[in-house]
Amino acid sequence: MADQRKAYIYAAIVVLIWSTIASAFKISLSYLDFLQLLFYAASVSLVTLSVILTLQKKIHLLCKCSKKDYLKSALLGFLNPFLYYVVLLKAYTILPAQQAVALNYTWAIQLVILSIPILKQKIGIKNIAAIIISYFGVLIISTQGDLATFRIVNLEGTFLALGSAVVWALFWIYNIKDKRDAVVKLFLNFLFGFAYICLYVIITQKLEIPALFGLVGAAYVGIFEMGITFVLWLTALRLSKTTAQVSNMIYLTPFLALVIINIVVGESILVSTVIGLLFIVAGIILQRYRLRRNLSNRL
Asked: N or C: which end of the chain has fewer CB within 10 A?
Protein backbone atom coordinates (compact mmCIF):
# COMPACT_ATOMS: atom_id res chain seq x y z
CA MET A 1 0.00 0.00 0.00
CA ALA A 2 1.41 3.43 -0.97
CA ASP A 3 2.46 5.69 1.89
CA GLN A 4 0.06 8.46 0.83
CA ARG A 5 -2.88 6.07 0.92
CA LYS A 6 -1.80 4.91 4.38
CA ALA A 7 -1.56 8.55 5.44
CA TYR A 8 -5.15 9.17 4.36
CA ILE A 9 -6.33 6.06 6.21
CA TYR A 10 -4.59 7.08 9.45
CA ALA A 11 -5.89 10.63 9.13
CA ALA A 12 -9.44 9.42 8.47
CA ILE A 13 -9.30 7.19 11.57
CA VAL A 14 -8.14 10.13 13.68
CA VAL A 15 -10.85 12.44 12.31
CA LEU A 16 -13.53 9.84 13.04
CA ILE A 17 -12.25 9.28 16.57
CA TRP A 18 -11.94 12.98 17.35
CA SER A 19 -15.47 13.45 16.04
CA THR A 20 -16.76 11.16 18.80
CA ILE A 21 -15.00 12.89 21.69
CA ALA A 22 -17.59 15.61 22.31
CA SER A 23 -20.27 12.93 22.67
CA ALA A 24 -17.97 10.87 24.90
CA PHE A 25 -17.44 13.91 27.13
CA LYS A 26 -21.13 14.64 27.43
CA ILE A 27 -22.19 11.04 28.11
CA SER A 28 -19.36 10.44 30.60
CA LEU A 29 -20.24 13.64 32.47
CA SER A 30 -23.70 12.25 33.15
CA TYR A 31 -22.00 9.57 35.29
CA LEU A 32 -18.97 11.46 36.62
CA ASP A 33 -18.10 14.88 37.98
CA PHE A 34 -15.83 16.68 35.51
CA LEU A 35 -12.80 16.46 37.81
CA GLN A 36 -13.40 12.78 38.45
CA LEU A 37 -13.64 12.23 34.69
CA LEU A 38 -10.38 14.09 34.16
CA PHE A 39 -8.62 12.09 36.88
CA TYR A 40 -9.59 8.68 35.51
CA ALA A 41 -9.11 9.68 31.86
CA ALA A 42 -5.64 11.08 32.57
CA SER A 43 -4.77 7.89 34.48
CA VAL A 44 -5.69 5.75 31.49
CA SER A 45 -3.88 8.14 29.14
CA LEU A 46 -0.68 7.92 31.16
CA VAL A 47 -0.78 4.12 30.99
CA THR A 48 -1.53 4.26 27.25
CA LEU A 49 1.41 6.58 26.58
CA SER A 50 3.66 4.34 28.69
CA VAL A 51 2.71 1.36 26.53
CA ILE A 52 3.34 3.36 23.34
CA LEU A 53 6.77 4.46 24.61
CA THR A 54 7.62 0.86 25.42
CA LEU A 55 6.46 -0.48 22.06
CA GLN A 56 8.41 2.24 20.24
CA LYS A 57 11.47 1.48 22.40
CA LYS A 58 11.76 5.08 23.55
CA ILE A 59 11.78 4.60 27.33
CA HIS A 60 15.53 5.24 27.40
CA LEU A 61 14.95 8.73 25.97
CA LEU A 62 13.37 9.76 29.28
CA CYS A 63 16.77 9.44 30.92
CA LYS A 64 18.35 11.69 28.30
CA CYS A 65 16.11 14.65 29.16
CA SER A 66 17.84 17.49 30.98
CA LYS A 67 16.59 19.36 34.05
CA LYS A 68 15.51 22.12 31.67
CA ASP A 69 13.48 19.59 29.68
CA TYR A 70 11.72 18.39 32.81
CA LEU A 71 10.99 21.98 33.78
CA LYS A 72 9.46 22.55 30.35
CA SER A 73 7.26 19.50 30.82
CA ALA A 74 6.24 20.71 34.26
CA LEU A 75 5.09 24.00 32.76
CA LEU A 76 3.48 22.49 29.67
CA GLY A 77 1.80 19.80 31.75
CA PHE A 78 0.12 22.55 33.75
CA LEU A 79 -1.40 23.90 30.52
CA ASN A 80 -2.25 20.47 29.11
CA PRO A 81 -3.65 18.17 30.40
CA PHE A 82 -4.38 20.03 33.66
CA LEU A 83 -5.72 23.53 32.94
CA TYR A 84 -7.01 22.82 29.44
CA TYR A 85 -9.21 19.90 30.44
CA VAL A 86 -10.36 21.43 33.72
CA VAL A 87 -11.72 24.41 31.79
CA LEU A 88 -13.00 22.40 28.80
CA LEU A 89 -14.79 19.71 30.79
CA LYS A 90 -16.36 22.33 33.03
CA ALA A 91 -17.67 24.00 29.85
CA TYR A 92 -19.16 20.69 28.75
CA THR A 93 -21.04 20.39 32.05
CA ILE A 94 -22.70 23.75 31.38
CA LEU A 95 -23.17 23.96 27.61
CA PRO A 96 -24.82 21.64 25.11
CA ALA A 97 -22.13 19.50 23.48
CA GLN A 98 -22.73 21.13 20.08
CA GLN A 99 -21.90 24.60 21.41
CA ALA A 100 -18.91 23.46 23.45
CA VAL A 101 -17.27 21.65 20.52
CA ALA A 102 -17.87 24.55 18.13
CA LEU A 103 -16.56 27.26 20.48
CA ASN A 104 -13.52 25.18 21.45
CA TYR A 105 -12.66 24.95 17.76
CA THR A 106 -11.74 28.66 17.83
CA TRP A 107 -8.31 27.73 19.21
CA ALA A 108 -6.77 28.35 15.78
CA ILE A 109 -8.05 31.93 15.83
CA GLN A 110 -6.83 32.36 19.42
CA LEU A 111 -3.46 31.23 18.08
CA VAL A 112 -3.43 34.15 15.66
CA ILE A 113 -4.22 36.62 18.43
CA LEU A 114 -1.68 35.19 20.90
CA SER A 115 1.04 35.07 18.22
CA ILE A 116 1.03 38.87 18.15
CA PRO A 117 2.39 39.46 21.69
CA ILE A 118 4.22 36.12 22.14
CA LEU A 119 5.83 35.59 18.74
CA LYS A 120 5.87 39.28 17.77
CA GLN A 121 3.95 38.41 14.63
CA LYS A 122 2.64 41.33 12.62
CA ILE A 123 -1.07 41.20 12.01
CA GLY A 124 -2.36 41.97 8.54
CA ILE A 125 -5.72 42.74 7.00
CA LYS A 126 -6.25 39.04 6.20
CA ASN A 127 -5.68 38.10 9.86
CA ILE A 128 -8.04 40.83 11.08
CA ALA A 129 -10.70 39.69 8.62
CA ALA A 130 -10.26 36.07 9.76
CA ILE A 131 -10.68 37.04 13.41
CA ILE A 132 -13.81 39.08 12.68
CA ILE A 133 -15.35 36.29 10.60
CA SER A 134 -14.68 33.62 13.23
CA TYR A 135 -15.91 35.73 16.11
CA PHE A 136 -19.06 36.53 14.18
CA GLY A 137 -19.56 32.76 14.17
CA VAL A 138 -18.97 32.70 17.93
CA LEU A 139 -21.63 35.38 18.34
CA ILE A 140 -24.13 33.41 16.27
CA ILE A 141 -23.54 30.26 18.35
CA SER A 142 -23.51 31.92 21.77
CA THR A 143 -26.72 33.89 21.07
CA GLN A 144 -28.31 30.90 19.30
CA GLY A 145 -28.91 33.15 16.31
CA ASP A 146 -30.60 35.95 18.24
CA LEU A 147 -28.40 38.72 16.86
CA ALA A 148 -31.10 41.35 17.31
CA THR A 149 -30.70 41.39 21.11
CA PHE A 150 -27.10 40.09 21.34
CA ARG A 151 -28.20 38.06 24.37
CA ILE A 152 -25.66 35.35 25.14
CA VAL A 153 -27.63 32.33 26.30
CA ASN A 154 -24.97 31.01 28.71
CA LEU A 155 -22.22 33.50 29.45
CA GLU A 156 -20.25 31.27 31.85
CA GLY A 157 -20.22 28.27 29.53
CA THR A 158 -19.28 30.41 26.53
CA PHE A 159 -16.45 32.04 28.48
CA LEU A 160 -15.12 28.63 29.58
CA ALA A 161 -15.29 27.09 26.10
CA LEU A 162 -13.46 30.06 24.58
CA GLY A 163 -11.05 30.03 27.52
CA SER A 164 -10.16 26.39 26.82
CA ALA A 165 -9.32 27.41 23.25
CA VAL A 166 -6.98 30.10 24.59
CA VAL A 167 -5.21 27.58 26.85
CA TRP A 168 -4.80 25.12 23.98
CA ALA A 169 -3.39 27.85 21.72
CA LEU A 170 -0.86 28.78 24.41
CA PHE A 171 0.10 25.13 24.80
CA TRP A 172 0.50 24.75 21.04
CA ILE A 173 2.79 27.79 20.75
CA TYR A 174 5.11 26.73 23.56
CA ASN A 175 4.99 23.02 22.74
CA ILE A 176 6.07 23.49 19.13
CA LYS A 177 9.24 25.22 20.36
CA ASP A 178 10.15 22.03 22.21
CA LYS A 179 12.21 19.90 19.80
CA ARG A 180 12.22 16.68 21.86
CA ASP A 181 10.66 13.46 20.58
CA ALA A 182 6.91 14.11 20.35
CA VAL A 183 5.78 11.01 22.27
CA VAL A 184 8.42 11.49 24.98
CA LYS A 185 7.44 15.08 25.68
CA LEU A 186 3.73 14.21 25.58
CA PHE A 187 4.29 11.47 28.17
CA LEU A 188 6.24 13.82 30.45
CA ASN A 189 3.64 16.55 30.04
CA PHE A 190 0.95 14.12 31.10
CA LEU A 191 3.07 12.81 33.96
CA PHE A 192 3.36 16.29 35.47
CA GLY A 193 -0.20 17.18 34.48
CA PHE A 194 -1.53 14.09 36.23
CA ALA A 195 0.30 15.16 39.40
CA TYR A 196 -1.48 18.55 39.25
CA ILE A 197 -4.81 16.82 38.63
CA CYS A 198 -4.32 14.52 41.62
CA LEU A 199 -3.44 17.44 43.86
CA TYR A 200 -6.43 19.47 42.68
CA VAL A 201 -8.85 16.58 43.20
CA ILE A 202 -7.47 15.87 46.69
CA ILE A 203 -7.81 19.51 47.70
CA THR A 204 -11.27 20.16 46.25
CA GLN A 205 -13.17 16.88 46.63
CA LYS A 206 -13.15 13.24 47.61
CA LEU A 207 -12.14 10.74 44.93
CA GLU A 208 -14.93 8.28 44.18
CA ILE A 209 -15.08 4.92 42.44
CA PRO A 210 -17.11 5.59 39.29
CA ALA A 211 -20.03 3.61 37.94
CA LEU A 212 -19.16 1.17 35.16
CA PHE A 213 -20.39 3.43 32.35
CA GLY A 214 -18.47 6.36 33.84
CA LEU A 215 -15.30 4.29 33.98
CA VAL A 216 -15.77 3.10 30.39
CA GLY A 217 -16.27 6.70 29.27
CA ALA A 218 -13.15 7.85 31.10
CA ALA A 219 -11.14 5.01 29.57
CA TYR A 220 -12.39 5.93 26.09
CA VAL A 221 -11.41 9.58 26.59
CA GLY A 222 -8.03 8.60 28.06
CA ILE A 223 -7.12 6.19 25.28
CA PHE A 224 -8.41 8.10 22.28
CA GLU A 225 -8.70 11.82 23.11
CA MET A 226 -5.53 12.01 25.20
CA GLY A 227 -3.43 9.14 23.90
CA ILE A 228 -3.33 6.98 20.82
CA THR A 229 -4.85 9.41 18.30
CA PHE A 230 -1.89 11.74 18.76
CA VAL A 231 0.49 8.99 17.63
CA LEU A 232 -1.79 8.05 14.73
CA TRP A 233 -1.90 11.67 13.61
CA LEU A 234 1.89 11.98 13.73
CA THR A 235 2.09 8.81 11.64
CA ALA A 236 -0.31 10.26 9.06
CA LEU A 237 1.74 13.45 8.81
CA ARG A 238 4.98 11.46 8.48
CA LEU A 239 3.63 9.25 5.67
CA SER A 240 2.00 12.06 3.71
CA LYS A 241 3.88 13.80 0.90
CA THR A 242 2.79 17.16 2.36
CA THR A 243 1.11 17.95 5.67
CA ALA A 244 -1.63 19.88 3.85
CA GLN A 245 -2.84 16.71 2.12
CA VAL A 246 -3.98 15.22 5.42
CA SER A 247 -4.29 18.24 7.73
CA ASN A 248 -7.13 19.67 5.60
CA MET A 249 -9.21 16.67 6.68
CA ILE A 250 -9.37 18.14 10.18
CA TYR A 251 -11.99 20.61 8.99
CA LEU A 252 -14.45 17.72 8.78
CA THR A 253 -14.11 16.97 12.50
CA PRO A 254 -16.51 19.51 14.08
CA PHE A 255 -19.21 18.86 11.48
CA LEU A 256 -18.98 15.10 11.93
CA ALA A 257 -19.06 15.74 15.68
CA LEU A 258 -22.40 17.52 15.31
CA VAL A 259 -23.85 14.52 13.48
CA ILE A 260 -22.62 12.13 16.17
CA ILE A 261 -23.88 14.41 18.94
CA ASN A 262 -27.31 14.38 17.36
CA ILE A 263 -27.36 10.58 17.00
CA VAL A 264 -25.62 9.51 20.23
CA VAL A 265 -26.36 12.28 22.72
CA GLY A 266 -29.75 13.13 21.27
CA GLU A 267 -29.25 16.89 20.99
CA SER A 268 -31.23 18.64 18.29
CA ILE A 269 -28.59 20.50 16.31
CA LEU A 270 -29.51 24.16 15.99
CA VAL A 271 -29.23 25.91 12.65
CA SER A 272 -27.36 28.69 14.47
CA THR A 273 -24.69 26.18 15.57
CA VAL A 274 -24.08 24.99 12.00
CA ILE A 275 -23.99 28.52 10.57
CA GLY A 276 -21.76 29.78 13.37
CA LEU A 277 -19.37 26.87 12.91
CA LEU A 278 -19.19 27.58 9.17
CA PHE A 279 -18.08 31.15 9.97
CA ILE A 280 -15.49 29.90 12.48
CA VAL A 281 -14.01 27.41 10.02
CA ALA A 282 -14.06 29.99 7.21
CA GLY A 283 -12.01 32.36 9.38
CA ILE A 284 -9.55 29.59 10.24
CA ILE A 285 -9.06 28.67 6.59
CA LEU A 286 -8.56 32.33 5.66
CA GLN A 287 -5.71 32.86 8.10
CA ARG A 288 -4.20 29.38 8.24
CA TYR A 289 -1.61 29.39 5.48
CA ARG A 290 -0.11 32.76 6.27
CA LEU A 291 0.06 31.91 9.98
CA ARG A 292 1.77 28.57 9.27
CA ARG A 293 4.39 30.31 7.14
CA ASN A 294 5.07 32.98 9.78
CA LEU A 295 5.26 30.45 12.61
CA SER A 296 7.69 28.23 10.71
CA ASN A 297 9.93 31.23 10.14
CA ARG A 298 9.97 32.21 13.80
CA LEU A 299 10.04 28.91 15.72
From this structure: N
